[in-house]
Recover the amino acids of this structure.
């Protein structure tokens, strides 16, 4: 009898590191929110509006999430720098900040993460976005995009293990975090996710800001492999990271507690039959959302504290 009670406690009390909600469980991990989105490498929302960014920062799309309507696509001069066979300006993650470029600007500054350049530094481009309306328009029908700053992260080394850092802004704590893959070639922990914390440079610091290792406020590894990380967002001290490129191989949604500095939940998107490569990750109306390369937006049905 005691053995049965002990087994019951193990099953129902011990935490489950991975959850896969899908057709087999009777619950749906995700819901299709809209089909008429713009395919992009990343995106973030502010209020009712989502800004989507394509690779090479060649297009910025303004999308009304409430009306489920693409308002405007701004074509931007493509950045074509290459590192080997990879384009540096891949727009891996986009995130709104806190600072406004001017008081009259409807949106705060917009940060677009790119890969490590040929000098071994992760590149973060900062943009001023100004949506505009024509005289008879009911909604924004154009978007002005102006780059105001470039932030270069410390050169990736074996010591700082930054790898190629993607950036996400913590608007509640006024700081920014990078998430990347440990790049140490001979380390037993090669490939683990590396989280590093930085201050957010002001635009008053100049058009170019070069961070170094002294600017790393905190840095630690989290116990999961981090290949093909996609978009991410922060909400109430939790970092949400989408991972994977193909529903035929693997797709994950990771939840990291930034205060506890550890992974607290993993959702198996592949097992839940998520149909596309996730790209942008953001919070809208207290729901976690994923934009995809396949021009669809999904609502993720998990608790957001």
């Amino acid at each position: 009898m005691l053995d049965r009670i002990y087994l019951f406690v193990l099953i129902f009390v011990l935490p489950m590191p991975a959850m896969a909600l899908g057709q087999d469980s009777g619950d749906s991990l995700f819901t299709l929110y809209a089909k008429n989105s713009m395919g992009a490498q990343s995106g973030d929302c502010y209020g009712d509006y989502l800004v989507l960014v394509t690779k090479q920062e060649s297009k910025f799309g303004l999308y009304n999430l409430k009306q489920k309507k693409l308002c405007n696509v701004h074509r931007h001069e493509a950045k074509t720098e290459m590192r080997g066979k990879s384009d540096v300006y891949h727009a891996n993650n986009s995130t709104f900040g806190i600072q406004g470029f001017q008081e009259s600007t409807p949106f705060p500054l917009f940060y677009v993460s790119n890969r490590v350049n040929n000098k071994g530094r992760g590149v973060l481009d900062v943009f001023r976005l100004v949506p505009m309306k024509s005289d008879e328009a009911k909604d924004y029908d154009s978007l002005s995009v102006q780059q105001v700053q470039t932030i270069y992260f410390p050169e990736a080394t074996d010591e700082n293990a930054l790898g190629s850092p993607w950036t996400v802004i913590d608007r509640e704590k006024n700081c920014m975090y990078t998430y990347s893959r440990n790049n140490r070639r001979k380390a037993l922990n090669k490939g683990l996710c590396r989280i590093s914390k930085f201050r957010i440079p002001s635009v008053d610091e100049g058009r170019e800001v070069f961070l170094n290792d002294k600017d790393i406020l905190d840095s630690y590894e989290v116990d999961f492999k981090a290949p093909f990380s996609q978009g991410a967002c922060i909400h109430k001290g939790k970092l949400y990271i989408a991972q994977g490129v193909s529903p035929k191989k693997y797709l994950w949604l990771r939840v990291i507690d930034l205060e506890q500095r550890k992974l607290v939940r993993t959702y198996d998107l592949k097992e839940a039959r998520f149909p596309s490569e996730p790209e942008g990750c953001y919070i809208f109306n207290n729901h976690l959302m994923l934009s995809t390369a396949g021009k669809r937006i999904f609502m993720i049905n998990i608790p957001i504290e």
Observations:
- Confidence is low (pLDDT under 50) at residues 4-17, 20-26.
- The helical segments are 2-13.
- The longest strand covers residues 122-132.
- The two ends are 38 Å apart (CA to CA).
